């Protein structure tokens, strides 16, 4: 190993602005249990959940965005990408053969694909309404 190379010492990565100002809040056992249940539901820890709700409001978690939904969303985005690539490929092939854009428009299959894309995009917009941050 060269002198200039830094070894990875492991451990938690450094953050730009560490959380260093604690705020004490008291809850009843029942309230604490409810908060912990919500944290499990949203797959996050108690500190992050309370910090997010207090700074961004309850709307942040209203959409109930879970890991399963994110995985499903990834799948939908992949499908959109495949469809867009198919359309672009057909259009590029047409341009290569005819040296111009099609005058007659798209085929019925192309129109169906575009309609499916629009529906998928509406689904994405609904999921991300309210500026949800992941």
Which structural class best describes the helix and strand composition? mainly alpha
Largest sheet: none
Radius of gyration: 24 Å
Mean pLDDT: 77
How many strands in all?
A: 0
Distance between the termini: 38 Å
Unreliable spans are: none
**Global geometry:** elongated
Topology pattern, helix = H, strand = E: HHHHH
Strand content: under 5%
What is the tally of helical segments? 5
What would you note in describing this structure?
The structure is a single chain. With 134 residues, the chain is an all-alpha fold. The protein has two domains: 34 residues; 61 residues, no CATH class. Helices cover 60% and strands 0% of the residues. α4 runs antiparallel to α5.
Brief digest:
The chain is an all-alpha fold. It has helices at residues 29-41, 46-56, 59-62, 67-98, 108-127.
Summarize the topology.
Elements: H1 29-41, H2 46-56, H3 59-62, H4 67-98, H5 108-127
Could you name the key traits of this structure?
single chain, 134 residues, mainly alpha, 0% strand, elongated
């Amino acid at each position: 190993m060269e002198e200039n190379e830094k070894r990875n010492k492991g451990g938690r990565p450094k953050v730009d602005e560490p959380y260093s100002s604690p705020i004490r809040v008291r809850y009843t056992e029942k309230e604490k249990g409810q908060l912990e249940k919500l944290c499990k539901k949203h797959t996050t820890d108690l500190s992050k959940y309370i910090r997010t709700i207090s700074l961004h409001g309850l709307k942040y978690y209203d959409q109930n965005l879970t890991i399963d939904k994110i995985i499903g969303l990834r799948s939908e985005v992949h499908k959109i990408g495949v469809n867009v690539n198919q359309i672009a490929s057909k259009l590029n092939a047409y341009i290569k053969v005819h040296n111009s854009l099609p005058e007659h428009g798209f085929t019925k299959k192309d129109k169906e694909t575009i309609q499916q894309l629009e529906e998928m995009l509406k689904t994405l917009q609904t999921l991300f309404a309210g500026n949800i941050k992941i």
